[in-house]
Amino acid sequence: MIKFLDLQKINAQYANELKQTASEVIDSGWFLMGEKVNSFETKLANYIGTKNAIGVANGLDALRLILKAYIDMGVMNEGDEVIVPANTYIASVLAITDNRLKPILVEPKVSNFNIDIDLIESQITPKTKAIMIVHLYGQVCWNDKLADLAKKYNLKVIEDNAQAIGAIWNGIKTGNLGDAAGFSFYPGKNLGALGDAGAVTTNDDALAKHIRALGNYGSQKKYVNEFQGLNSRLDEIQAAFLEIKLKYIDTENQYRRQLASLYLKGIKNPNITLPFPENTKLDYAQNTEHVWHLFVIRCTDREKLQEYLIANDIQTLIHYPIPPNKQLAYKEMNHMDYPITNAIHNEVMSIPISPVMIEDEVQKIITILNEFKV
Ligand SMILES: *Cc1c(COP(=O)(O)O)cnc(C)c1O
Predict the structure, then answer these.
(1) Per-residue pLDDT tens digits for 44-61
(2) Closest to 66 (Cα-Cα) out of 220, 262, 198, 248
(3) Pocket of ligand 1 (CB under 6 A)
């Protein structure tokens, strides 16, 4: 069986270092807001290139806290609108509605699954305060037009960078393109903790300070509460694990690119549509570096393809089967129709890609995919 993602194997690569650092944390008797978190935050900020990085409990909280801080700071108000891709993972939308802001869903491009930047301007109203871009599946979503729009309409750009740590646009890392970014270190993400974890990066010192306080009961000084905060902190032990794994993220992402290029060259089946890598220069800006969190193909006969792959011992997943606006959680949006988003959700399938797969496994998957007949 070729597993979709072998987390045991991924962490086994670093088992000695992970066990060593876990022992250090246990022996220290210090589990929150200590040296390990400080050290990881500094390394993450250096890696992304931002002035600040703030560890939080998970990726959803990272996004929630950014918006909550903007509301507290008077940058936006309840009821204001935030533009977000219609085909994102639901967490991006939850962060918006949790803050009583209104998500304005915009269709993606079917070619690259990212929000169609050309459709954004027509959705901007006097209530629009931010654009939440999502670097979906590890692919950069950015171009000069987006930056110009944000400037022209005075909008904040929030990056949902949960799937794209290490991705680069013209020498700038995702997480350092917009005004603030949310990261997830969910175990299956490219930089995965051994549990839940997340972070915010930003060059805005006031925002960083505010988010840090909000995640700690709205307090900067113990028992002095300036804001109505919540508890969303990064654990010392997770920060310690992440600091180790951060050292290897570029190597791992590079290996993912190598496997992706085998797929891109090898898969030749008219029934299967390949993902659209930015560096083909047909779309967006040039010089973007995809980190292949997921390798997502499309097939109009997806269920048949998935069964066929299972029969051939290959695990796949669907990211995602139901778009946010069709979820029960968002009954008020169920009537809205986003045809491109629907088509994507009906056709996408993620095939295995990970830093611990070997090329032989990728070749086997290519051969089996090329033999698929509808
Ligand atoms: C994983 C993910 C999140 C949420 O991160 P958690 O750490 O699971 O809360 C948000 N947005 C996207 C696009 C994600 O893939």
Answers:
(1) 999 999 999 999 999 999
(2) 198
(3) 58-60, 88-89, 91-92, 134, 160, 162-163, 184, 186, 196, 198
